[in-house]
Structures are given as structure tokens and as C-alpha cells.
Amino acid sequence: MREVLDDLVAAVAAGRTVGLGTVVRTFRSAPRPAGAAMMVDADGRAVGSVSGGCVEGALYELATEVAREGRPVLQRYGISDDDAYEVGLTCGGILHIFVEPVSTATFPQLVEMADDVAAGRPVAAVTVIEHPDPAWLGRHLVVRPDGFSGSLGSDRADHAVSDDVQGLLATGRNATLSYGPDGQRRGEGMRVFAVSFAPQPRMLVFGAIDFAAAVAQQGSFLGYRVTVCDARPVFATAARFPQAAEVVVDWPHRYLQAQIDAGQVDNRTVVCVLTHDPKFDVPLLEVALRHDLAYVGAMGSRRTHHDRMDRLREAGLNEDELARLSSPIGLDLGSRTPEETAVSIAAEIIALHWGGAGGRLSTMDARIHHEPMADADHEAAAQELRSS
Description:
Blueprint: H1 5-13, E1 18-27, E2 37-40, E3 46-48, H2 56-69, E4 73-77, H3 81-87, E5 94-102, H4 110-118, E6 123-130, E7 140-144, E8 147-150, H5 155-171, E9 175-179, E10 190-197, E11 202-206, H6 210-221, E12 225-230, E13 246-249, H7 252-261, E14 270-273, H8 278-288, E15 295-298, H9 302-314, H10 319-322, E16 325-326, H11 338-354, H12 375-387
Parallel strand pairs: 11-12, 11-14, 12-13, 14-15, 15-16
Antiparallel strand pairs: 1-2, 1-5, 2-3, 4-5, 6-7, 6-10, 7-8, 9-10
Helix pairs in contact: 6-11, 7-8, 11-12
């Protein structure tokens, strides 16, 4: 939904009713994840994508109709491979898309929610997508860390859903949740979809070398807010790293510790240590490996890696902490250039997040898409990647 939010707010603020289709559930090899959205404005303009082009034509017609008639619809595309082909979903996946009319009347909290998103404040939008009472369909609840606004239809439902969505918001996840018709936790009849707008995750790249520019470009492409940090001002310049949101001149370990103390680093943050100089990377890794981060990788040869591990042990890190380090950094892609190496680093970050094994899909029968991994599973995945 984030990709259409600015256009959606502009249309609604101008007094128009927009047809909005949001992916709320996916099965098998669905091309876009839950939360992907497409809007059709009153002037016929379409923004966004729910399937990379597979079902957009059919959705365009449905969204136009929903906006005109004012009745939301939960539509399924790709029930079987044959049906998928008929609507263009040739990948054979299944998409559940909730299509709703959006206006100041149907979603009065939209502009205020968009202000939170723009300011980097965590906020989630909840929509009723199934209910035995049609009057509940399309109702919204906006959830923040300190409470909620709007209503799904009853006080009981609002509080039950808000409590559950707080957990999703903390981790930046989207999900479909099921309840009884009045928000009963043990019941069926109501389903809601929650889309979280957590602040952009961060990628911290330490070492202002040529590889860092390529890694910064990959990180920005993947949706990270990239910071490049180096203690040498002659190398750490914005001109050398145009893809980075910021370039910082500071000792790496001091900068990371300051960011941790300021609450600017969380368990979605990835750290790429490209310095391969003990006076920089050992103090930095002492800090990084003792904090809850999504990924910590360090560049260097096998010899550099073994020397680094010895130094970290001498510094007092235990084996559990050391096991969190991805070193040498990246997947085995045979990379040579900075750009190829950056792809291998990005691939490892993606594989650890989703639980991929890093092998060739053409040689596997396993599913293509994965669910986000629980924290307890990350180390097992890291060990598998390192041994593969």
C-alpha cells in the first residue's frame, strides 16, 4: 500500500472516490506479497500493482465498479492453474484482493495516517474484509503504539484487534487476522487485514571503499535507508555515495554505539562491515554482535576471517555471539566486481530474512516463496548458508 499512498491521499483530499485493491492473502507462487496495492482514480488513472501485470486488467474493471457503486468486494484470483490462466495469473498462484471505495467518508483517518507515515512514525491500517454484517465491510481502524482511532463496529472488536495489531506493528508485518463477529478471539465470521507502516529499515555500511558504493546502491534498491560511515573524511563524502541517505565521518564503533543509545537501531537493521582493518572492524563487531540486529556481515579473506575471530574471542565475545557473524560476507556467487559482490551480500540478507537456502530454484522442488523467519530460526539458516 505504501507505493500508492501519496496518490491515494491526493485523490481523496481533492474530494474524489478511489477504487483501491489490496492483496490480503496469497497462496503458492503468488507474484506480489500481502499489502501490495493498486488504485484506480476517478479519472481512470491506475497506480500501483498487485501481481506484476498478471491480473491488473481484471482488477481495473472491478475497482472502477466498486468506486462507482460504493460496495467493497473480496475477490479471489487464480483458484486453479486453469482459472489463473483465464485471468492472466500464469504463475499459478492465488491472490485474495480486497477492493474498496476510498473517500473522506469511508476512510476519514487516511490523511492523518499518511502524515504519520511521512514522518516515520509507526502506524498500521486495519480493514474489515469479511463479516456476516455487510455494514462492517471496509471499516477502518488506525493503530499506533499508544492507541487507535476509528472503529470497526464495536468497542470490543476495536480493542481486541488493536491489541493484536500492536504486535504486528512492532515488527513491521502485514497479516490477515480472524475473530468472531464482535471481535471474539475464539470465533469465526470476521476477518481483518492489517498493513503496517513501520519506519524504513536501516542498512549501515562501514568502510568507504568502492564496494561500499555498490552495497549502498543494492541496499537502497531493497528499501533500506542506507548510511555509509568511515573515520576518514577524504573518503567518506556524499559525492562518492549518491545512493546513501547519509554519509557519516566517525569511528565506526562509536557511531554504531551512539545510534543504539539513541534508539535508531532495531532488529531489522543490517550491518555490513567492509573495512577489513582490525583497528576499525574489531571494535565495531564487538558492539554489533552484542546487539539484536537482523544481520551482521564482515568482508575479508579466509585468513582475515580467522584472524578477526581470534581477536574477537580475545575481546571477550562468546561463541553464540560469534555465530551471528556472516564472514566472509555474502553468498557464493563467484562474484568478482564490487557490483557482483554487492549482489551476493544482498542475496545473503534476503535469504536469511526469508529462510532461503541460496540454491538454484531450477534444481529444487521446494516452494519458491517463504514466510518471514522467527528469530530462533535465523541462526540455523545462517549455519546452513555458510555450509552450503
